[in-house]
Amino acid sequence: MTTSATKLLCLIGDPVDHSVSPEIFTRAFEACGLDAVYLAFRVPKEGIGTALSGLRALGFLGCNVTVPHKVEVMKCLDEVRGAAVGIGAVNLVKNEGGRLIGYNTDGEGVLWALSEVNLDGKRVAVIGYGGAARAVAFAIASRHMPREIIIAGRDAEKAERLVRDLSGSAKATVMRIDELSRLDLDLIVNATPVGMSPNVEEMPIAEDALRSGMVVFDLVYSPKNTALLRAARRKGCRTISGVEMLVRQAAAGFEIWTGMPAPVEEMRRAADAALELRGRRG
Ligand code: NAP
Fold it and tell me: Any idea which fold 108-240 has?
């Protein structure tokens, strides 16, 4: 039951209809007995400032922010904290007594998803240079000592920008995606939307770039079992699904908003059920 004391949270992005965050957070609030609701609002690119003013005026506890607002939203905040500063993107806002504070929890999701992988002295390739790729690269550089982080994409100039930003924290280089198959890589991360529903047969790299013993981490979580992960398993690679990161970045957000430990297993079950339902609907 909602009351006048119900805490309000939401997702702001465009599009948002694919998002399973409402299901994940609703289950988490129920599991912890919290009087809170989580909604999803489609806000076009030019509407982010108005949307944030609205949240402040209505006393929302906070929001998640997704594409295309993760960078632009920073102009509307009173402060940006933690990993969001280096990454240069915000995926979570908390309203602290009328001050809007920006955080980035994607990196925590990445580190948790990679928690059983030793990357010290290893060669890592990240495909993409958008917000998620930045979170992956900065998170790896902050926790591990990789031999090299290769940023691969279709626009060398954009990739070069991320390499420059990383230069103080890790050895980083730019490469074309088709050049990756020449290298002996230890970890490949797909940080592009390639393979995402409805284009489920697409892969961000050719199958011959995958070799036994590699770790392949696909940030795409819808579908859970992407064409890239299926190909990687056929080649004897170890695979990590984007769902791991999705659940852990949500859990980190729950903790920032509520100050309580997140019910991670409940959140994972909610994510799995919501993604399965989306998959059946097609
Ligand atoms: P973004 O900021 O829009 O960046 C997208 C990146 O993908 C850019 O580097 C873009 O390069 C590249 N790209 C797009 N289409 C491509 C194609 N056909 N071939 C090669 N590169 C292509 O988006 P984002 O926030 O980084 O998100 C990227 C993906 O990660 C999405 O699928 C998102 O759902 C997923 N994600 C997952 C989680 C999780 O928790 N699992 C969290 C965040 C994001 P150009 O500039 O050249 O187009």
Answer: Rossmann fold (3.40.50)
